[in-house]
């Protein structure tokens, strides 16, 4: 089954403790992206990747890192999480065509205390 | 930069009534347009998209949307609401950039409630 898999689904952590949210897709998609969803703000792009070893900032990249060492994986790293990063995070992927739809994972709900 | 406006963060309809969710975009060039639906505790799923050609686009679950260039709108409709349509709906736009690096910009979402 074609899917985008994120782990974990729920994560509670404390300020400053480094964490990684994993994302993997099995559709051989070139493009992958991370979004955060906050009430009243919709989805905002954090980082995206056009292909292996090619990443770029989205609208809200501060406090986040990503890497794309393999085509299927695109982990999101929070080196020193802060409470304002409490949010619902989504990973998404699509093929290289700009008019192709994004396929989304089921989300990771992160709480930073 | 692209922007998307969804009028009404909450819409409530009766079962069997018309569903109309509004979306307006700002762009000097017609973008690619999408509607996504998000059910509780799930990721977003594509409902329909407009890229080129016929301006009335049909999607899944009986939804359709019409691209109106003169009004810069892409409103989502369904003739008869069903309880299972209760969800959050997002309009999104993507500029037409060569090379596939198109950025998808989302609206703030409309929560649809369907009442008996």
Protein model, in words:
- The complex is a heterodimer of chains A (113) and B (116).
- Chain A is an all-beta fold and 113 residues long.
- Chain A has strands spanning 4-7, 10-13, 19-25, 31-38, 42-51, 54-57, 65-66, 76-78, 87-94, 103-104, 108-112.
- In chain A, the strands form 2 sheets. In chain A, strands 2, 4, 5, 6, 9, 10 and 11 form a 7-stranded mixed sheet that branches.
- In chain A, strand 9 (87-94) and strand 10 (103-104) form a beta hairpin.
- With 116 residues, chain B is mostly beta strands.
- Chain B has strands spanning 3-5, 10-14, 19-21, 24-26, 32-38, 44-50, 56-58, 64-68, 73-78, 87-94, 104-106, 110-115.
- In chain B, strands 2, 5, 6, 10, 11 and 12 form a 6-stranded mixed sheet that branches. A 4-stranded antiparallel sheet of chain B has the order 3-9-8-7, with no helix packed on it. In chain B, strands 1-4 form a two-stranded antiparallel sheet.
- In chain B, a hairpin with a 5-residue loop joins strand 5 (32-38) and strand 6 (44-50).
- The mean pLDDT of chain B is 91.
- The chains are: A mainly beta (113), B mainly beta (116).
- Chain A binds chain B through residues 4, 30-31, 33, 35, 40-45, 48, 50, 58, 90, 92, 95-99, 101-102, 104-107, and chain B through 9, 32, 34, 41-46, 49, 51, 90, 94, 96-104, 106-109.
Please supply descriptive tags for the structure shown above.
heterodimer, A: 113 residues, mainly beta, seven-stranded mixed beta sheet, four-stranded antiparallel beta sheet, 0% helix, B: 116 residues, six-stranded mixed beta sheet
